[in-house]
Amino acid sequence: MTEFGQLLTLHRHFQQHQIHGIPVQVLRQGVHVDIGTITSFTKHFVEIQGTLYNRNLYTFVSTPGY
Questions:
Q1: What domain of life does the native source organism fall in (predicted)?
Q2: What is the DSSP letter of 58?
Q3: Percent of the chain with pLDDT over 90
Q4: Is there a smaller number of Cβ atoms within 10 Å at the N or the C end of the chain?
Q5: Residue 8's closest CA among 44, 40, 55, 50?
Q6: Burial (0-12, 13-18, 19+ Cβ within 10 Å), 46
């Protein structure tokens, strides 16, 4: 399983968070942008509750228990 603060970089990281409904924090250049659960993802984008985030522009951090 994942630990609080783990960076999501691999397909399986995003898949695990989506399947288990583990919250994800979204950062852009180290600044908090959003937090929520992954509703879908591709190799280029992550959708968090209706908002698309480009995987090349944002950092995704595991926040289990949030």
A1: Bacteria
A2: -
A3: 86
A4: N
A5: 55
A6: buried
